[in-house]
Recover the amino acids of this structure.
């Protein structure tokens, strides 16, 4: 299997998975500890945007914590799963079918979340992605992103899966508008040899550069 970047590839994977979301390689039943820890530090919920929401696990978690959630994905099947799970849980959220690089935000969000979207995107779309993220984040807003990490300059890209990028390159990509508030690494071993046997996931918490990064 080639590296997943194009919309057609995602259609094939969703068609293969059918209604069984557990077949999707990016599906997860629980939000990351990283997201839960950050949300626990907020005194009150706000407006959240989950870009590339997938099957909606993070969106549902945020909605369950009282956040006003908008879930965005370019895959109809992903949004159907998200909407169905929200209805089953008795939660309300807004779903938008759109490619984030072509979408024009009409609102500002206190929290924008990317759980693995950027690293599955063609690099020529990066500038548009960045532009849309900056348009969506409120002046005192925050941005969370999970990204496969390139641990050393000479670490090779895997045969399949997301593109690995160094922490320094991620910081530069979002500067100067966003300033890193917290960073964590999760090492995952026992992976298929096609991804190198192990991966490192980088978790980034950014705030607007002119906001107080030490504020709760």
């Amino acid at each position: 299997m080639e590296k997943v970047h194009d919309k057609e590839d995602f259609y094939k994977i969703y068609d293969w998975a059918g209604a069984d979301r557990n077949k999707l390689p990016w599906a997860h039943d629980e939000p990351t500890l990283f997201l839960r820890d950050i949300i626990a530090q907020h005194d009150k919920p706000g407006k959240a945007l989950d870009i590339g929401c997938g099957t909606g696990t993070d969106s549902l978690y945020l909605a369950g914590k009282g956040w006003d959630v908008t879930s965005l994905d370019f895959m109809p099947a992903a949004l159907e799963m998200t909407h169905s799970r929200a209805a089953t849980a008795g939660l309300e959220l807004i779903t938008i079918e759109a490619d984030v690089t072509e979408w024009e935000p009409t609102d500002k969000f206190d929290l924008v979340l990317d759980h693995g979207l950027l690293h599955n995107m063609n690099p020529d779309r990066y500038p548009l992605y960045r532009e849309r993220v900056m348009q969506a984040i409120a002046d005192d807003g925050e941005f969370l992103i999970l990204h496969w990490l390139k641990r050393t300059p000479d670490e090779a890209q895997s045969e399949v899966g997301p593109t690995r990028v160094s922490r320094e390159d991620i910081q530069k990509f979002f500067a100067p508008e966003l300033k890193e508030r917290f960073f964590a690494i999760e090492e995952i071993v026992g992976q298929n040899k096609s991804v190198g046997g192990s991966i490192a996931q980088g978790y980034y918490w950014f705030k607007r550069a002119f906001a107080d990064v030490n504020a709760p």
User: Anything to note?
Assistant: The beta strands are 47-51, 68-73, 94-97, 109-115, 137-148, 178-189, 198-208.
